[in-house]
Structures are given as structure tokens and as C-alpha cells.
Amino acid sequence: MEELEGSQDLIVPTSPSDGLADAWTADETLRAQLTQERSENDIPHEEFSLYQSCFEESLEQPDEVWSLELHGVNSARLYHFIKHYSEENTSYWYVIVAREIEDEEQIEILDAFPTKDPNFVDQYRRGEQEIGALEARSVNRLIH
């Protein structure tokens, strides 16, 4: 497997249109909207590194994969990989957000994070379900 690249910790600016930066892409806008919907009682950002061991398994053996076609200048397909973990006293999901790049057999990781909020996970169940209860197949894409 190739070395994984991409942001593991997404920091979303509070003002997407300050006049100094380039315009946000559709996928950046979608991620910002979803991040704002995160519950105050969810896993704190400071604890995300404690869940880093879930990254590879969630990417290679997700419970669900959803794809969403974005429309815009450089439209791309977004992928949401979702893996549910249930331990003795806790239940949480690990979500990976990726996008298709020029080579349709490769994806770029945009964000990855844990959450214990089922309503927040539902926000990533958008578009077409490619892997899940209805379909179980392996993900064969090269990761960047």
C-alpha cells in the first residue's frame, strides 16, 4: 500500500470568505458545514489521536462507503468511509472523507475523525451507498 497522505486533523476557518483567500471549493464548503454540526458532547478534537489506530481498518474494511458527486468548477466525487466500533462501555464510529483525483483509481484523504454521535454520522450518509448492508465488496483504490 502506498504511503497515506492528507490531513488527519481538519481545521475549518470561522469565516470562509474573508476576501484574501481563494474561494472555497464545494467539498471544502460541505466539510465546513458538517464540522459545524458536531455536538459539544462528542469526542474532543484533542483526543482524535487516541483513535488513529482505526484509520487503516476503517479505510480497508469499512462498514459503509457513500459517494457523492459535487458540482462546481473542479467537481469531484467525495467518498465517506464509515466504520462502527463497539467496545465494552462505549460505541463510536470512525469516518474518513476522501475525494477522487484525476486518476479515477486513486483517492485523496481529506479528513478522518472519530465520533460517538449517531446523528453526526448520519450527515455522512449522503449520495449513493457503495458498500454497506446491501453490498459487501472490497475497496480497490490507491490512496494518496
Following the backbone from N to C, one meets helices and strands in this order, namely HHEEEEHEE
Integer tally of domains: 1
CA-CA gap between termini: 10 Å
Main sheet makeup: 6 strands, mixed
Query: What Rg, in angstroms, do the CA atoms define?
Result: 15 Å
Supply the number of helical segments.
3
Arithmetic mean pLDDT: 77
Number of strands: 6
Name the strands of the widest sheet in spatial order: 5-1-2-3-4-6
Strand proportion: 25-35%
Provide the helix percentage.
10-25%
Poorly predicted parts: 1-15, 135-142
Judging from the principal axes of the Cα atoms, what is the shape? globular
**What structural category do the secondary elements indicate?**
alpha+beta
Core attributes:
single chain, 144 residues, alpha+beta, 6-stranded mixed beta sheet, 3 helices, 6 strands, disordered N terminus
Structure notes:
By secondary structure, the protein is an alpha+beta fold. The chain has one domain (26-143). The chain contains three helices and six strands. It has helices at residues 26-36, 54-60, 118-122; strands at 64-69, 77-86, 91-100, 106-115, 128-131, 142-143. The chain has a six-stranded mixed sheet with strand order 5-1-2-3-4-6. The radius of gyration is 15 Å and the shape is globular. The N and C termini lie close together (10 Å).
How are the SSEs placed, and which strands pair?
Blueprint: H1 26-36, H2 54-60, E1 64-69, E2 77-86, E3 91-100, E4 106-115, H3 118-122, E5 128-131, E6 142-143
